[in-house]
Amino acid sequence: MDLLGGQDAFSYLIQNSLVIRPQIVLVIWGIAILCVVPFLGKNSTRYPLFYTLAGLAVAAFYVIWGSDAGPAFGGAIVFDFFTRFFHLLFLVAAFLSVLLSYRYLEIEGSHHGEYYALILFATAGMMFMAGAMELITVVVGLELMSVSTYILVGFTSRQRRSNEASMKYFLLGAFSTGVILYGMSLLYGIVGSTNLSEIGEVLGANEVGPLVALAVILTIVGLCFKVAAVPFHMWAPDAYEGAPTSVTAFMSVAVKAAGFALFFRICLVAFGDIRDLYVGILALISMLTMTWGNVAAVTQTNIKRLLAYSSISHAGYILMGLVAGTAFGVRAAAIYLLIYTVANLGVWAVVIVLRREDIKGEDMDSLKGLFSQYPAVAILMLFFLLSLAGIPPMGGFIAKYFVFASVMDVGLNSSGNLAFLMFSVAIVGALNAVVALYYYLRIVVLMFFERDFVPVPLALSTGTTITLVVAGLLTLIMGIYPQPFIELAESAALPLM
Predict the structure, then answer these.
(1) Which of 96, 129, 156, 196 could form a disulfide with 141 if both were Cys (CB 3.0 to 4.6 A apart)?
(2) What is the pLDDT of residues 194-240, one digit of tens each?
(3) What is the spatial distance between Cα 454 and Cα 367, in angstroms, rounded to a whole number?
(4) With bands split at pLDDT 50, 70 and 90, how would you rate the model's confidence at 455?
(5) What SS3 class is residue 8?
(6) 322: number of CA atoms within 13 Å, CB side?
């Protein structure tokens, strides 16, 4: 096959590079930060922050207006509506996470320019993952994201728990990558191609044998590690608790969204014609993830661990869209990820401002009496928690409605085991929504009905204030007028179906 299509190598490279301009911008910006930071004085810590925000804005410009449609590099990367949706989601999550980071890192005494470079590299890796149509591209994007995130988790190196969290995350992340690579190597051996579309065509046209089943299951298991789905979730609580809180916020939304973007691309493009092989496994994993995440969250007294288990439970709800396996299911998962990203970043912003000098602000008791001293922050926290619980008129209600509707739609139009499977997932999800409401309301009670708030000013800054206000407004708008966001998610679903 003539990959160059008759072009000279330079023209080919330039033309195809237009598709990945956002990633190129982020990588160059990150390298520039690493090169410039050593020459900046100690009083120039704001420069890397502003430079990073500018880089993310330029990348967003190319995503919205500048990038050409793929495929590019011989079909290794595609820039379709699905890719565009997730690129914007990653960039928004990174932008708000960076805004949250400055004041927090100052308090922790770990404000270094390398932090921002790692955020940019991780975001570039996620963007490669979302647009990957080749197994090789998947691995490149996955490793760029993973290695950057491993370092970020251990960024506050003077803290023992941060080092421990980084090591655990690295070991289990490396193991999960090995599992994915083993599955992919089997797929390549069976099909003779690393292109996802070609893999899907071959698998759909031939009988599914034991080797194919093993390859598919190994790949799905590795992906479940990346999104912290039960029983492959064990790294998440320790990593979320030990990482710097600003990094935890970034991981809980951007890294999770990247994992799901890859999950949907592989399952619906490469494994779409053999869904009967794994849909039951995914349904079971979805139910276990929702249940264990919520049950474990009820017993937590550390806010970061509670939100870690909450994040696990939300992964179970997002998997409902993949279990449905329809265009409606992809749209539902995309809406859920969008609304979850906004609300979750808002919650983590509140946790970050609780971290003051000599006060970690990570125990549940740290929220006692918040409303009496900072009513605006407490009300915004209420918005975010109600959204995560799926209570109207917040955006989370729309998210939950769509994922439930996606599996119910398949169940009502099916019969036998498939219908039973879909209804079971919906029922388990509804029961778990009640459990989640309990521990979210427990936080509300502490904020509004207790009076033990420590009289130390919150670590509010311009960045955290902007994040809180933007997240609060979007959470409310997505619940009251969700149609533009639904249409955006609907466009993301079209290329996969």
Answers:
(1) 129
(2) 999 999 999 888 888 889 999 999 999 999 999 999 888 888 899 99
(3) 9
(4) low
(5) coil
(6) 33
Counted residue by residue, the chain has a size of 497
Q: Domain spans of the chain?
A: 1-270, 274-497
Element at 100 (helix H, strand E): helix 81-108
Q: CA 174, CA 277: separation in Å to the nearest integer?
A: 26
Task: Give the whole-angstrom CA distance, residue 180 versus residue 177.
Answer: 5
Q: What is the per-residue pLDDT for 497?
A: 58
Helix axes 462-480, 327-353, angle to 10 degrees: 150
Start-to-end CA distance of the chain, whole Å, equals: 27
Per-residue pLDDT reduced to its tens digit, 40-64: 766 567 788 888 999 999 999 999 8
The DSSP annotation for 198-225 comes to HHHHHHHHS---HHHHHHHHHHHHHHHH
The answer for residues whose C-beta is within 8 angstroms of residue 405's C-beta and 6 or more apart is 328, 332
* Torsion region of 228: left, alpha or beta (phi above 0 gives left; psi -120 to 50 gives alpha): left
Structure tokens, 53: 């925000």
List, in order, residues 6 or more apart from 284 with CB less than 8 Å away: none
